[in-house]
Amino acid sequence: MSDTHVPKRARALPAQLLEAVEAVDVVIHAGDWVDAATLDLLESRSRRLIGVWGNNDGPELRRRLPEVARVELDGVRVAVIHETGPAAGREARCDQAFPETDLLVFGHSHIPWDTVTPRGLRLLNPGSPTDRRRQPVCTYLTAEIVDGRLGAVALVPVDRSA
């Protein structure tokens, strides 16, 4: 997930998202939490949480989170960052900035993104589960890592009526 913006653009994380958080092995948040309470909540409900700060995150979140997170998950080299710059030229910039990475998760735009760079780096932006901006619905992503490879990736629409 990314760009939760609680409590500025949403009062709370959707129940659907919190249920998904509790069901998975790893939760990734690509920044713009806005409040530390959201970080505390996800830390308490996640088996493992990987997160970074975004441009709307203040000093407390920046003290607790890195600008870039790098981890290996079952053989897949993952990096997380909030911003990658404009869509034009993104693949080339990310290939250059993340040469030792298989999967880059990013946020900022609130616009879902799923591409593969010329080098084979997978770029994923989950959109926002709380602020759809110019999108038809709020979203987050799920992904599986199977036998050391990124498997199924699904964009999940968020039911905001619940």
Summarize model confidence as the mean pLDDT. 96
**Strand percentage, roughly?**
25-35%
Q: Main sheet, how many strands, which sense, barrel?
A: 5 strands, mixed
- Rg for CA atoms: 15 Å
Please estimate the helix content: 10-25%
Main β-sheet, spatial strand arrangement = 3-4-5-7-6
Structural class based on helices, strands and sheet pairing:
alpha/beta
Low-confidence stretches: none
Q: How far apart are the termini?
A: 18 Å
Structural shape: globular
Strand elements, count? 9
Order of helices and strands: HEHEHEEHEEEEE
Description:
By secondary structure, the protein is an alpha/beta fold. 20% of the residues lie in helices and 28% in strands. It has 4 helices and 9 strands. It has a 5-stranded mixed sheet with strand order 3-4-5-7-6, with no helix packed on it. The protein has a two-stranded parallel sheet with strand order 1-2. The longest helix is centred in the first third of the chain and has 10 residues, at 36-45. The two termini are 18 Å apart. The model has no long low-confidence stretch (mean pLDDT 96).
